[in-house]
Fold these 4 entries.
Entry 1:
Amino acid sequence: MTVQEQLAQNLKRIQELEARALAAEAKAQAAEAKAQSKDRKLSFKIGNKGGICVVGLNGRFPVTLYTDQWVRLIAVIPELQKFIADNAQAIEHRVKNPIIQPDMQ
């Protein structure tokens, strides 16, 4: 085998190793991003139009309501909890173990 052939063979091995390393790193980063998205805490911010945004509730898109809408929603939380409890069998869950308040079960 000539020196050029050895160099070409070594270069091919290096490229294969680099490709494997990059694939493994991408897989690890994807797994980490997925784990972080599951553990993401909710945060709040004021949107461009003055609405109150909940970040981390709906994937990468915030849920935005205006103050009067939040006040109305907060006022009916007991009814919402009862509705969820009464309809638990028919409601779809986006996560396997949703956090449910004890009085909602």
Entry 2:
Amino acid sequence: MSGDRPGRLRHAEPVMGTVVSFDVPDWVGPTLAEAVRWLHWVDATFSPYRDDSDVSRFGRGSLDRSLRDACARRARRSARNH
């Protein structure tokens, strides 16, 4: 994380096939690092463009059984509620 304005942190993070820019107060530093980690987790989990993402593996039918079962239970629960 870097910045060129006193009291501010400016950071550009390449993630999800784009760049996410931050301009935040410097006291946000640790939270900014958490936000960046979260963005990479979201990308790794939900990206349909990454072969190693959970969404891509789910689409290929290659997720482990426990996760497939959890998804099926959630889908049934959601269908009952709508």
Entry 3:
Amino acid sequence: MPLTRPFLRMFDRITSDPASLGGKPVIKGTRISVELILEWMASGASRDEIVARHPHLIAADVEQALGYAAFGPERHHSRHASPGTDGLRVP
């Protein structure tokens, strides 16, 4: 499902490819999913601990993963958005 352009600009470190991890959003250039970062944080890891354990990540990667998850990316899939709904999913 393609994402709308404004949403992609907000999260330029996040990408999604149907050929990789079933299309889950991941940190660009890695196979580390937004979901995995959330799991690490839910288990008590801090942003700095995640970056220290995974030196190919930077703080902005973790911050964008959190923002991406909190913002509700499913609301911004253009396939579900209708004109005038501000990107909200139409029932």
Entry 4:
Amino acid sequence: MRLEELLIVWPVADVRDLYDDDSNDLEDYEKKIDLAWELLQKHGKVVICCVAGISRSNAIALGVLVKYFDMDFYDAWELVKERVPRANINPNHISKLKKLFNVTPT
């Protein structure tokens, strides 16, 4: 078997261009969430990639769960934290996602 046949190709939704401050627009999140979903639909798998895998990638994963799997925002957040123990989504991302999905404070 050739090396090329052994390589597993994972489609990547690159979210490194999101910032951890408050400068991202809701449209920025919407585009990244939609990209991750499109790749998941097309390939059956997707890697949502930032730098450390702690905040931005998990924020987009949370968004995919809410938008496309009809999960409650807080249930999706708990699932992300359960599956990615190092997840620590920046409060700016949480705030923007709450606005995007019209989540009321608990």
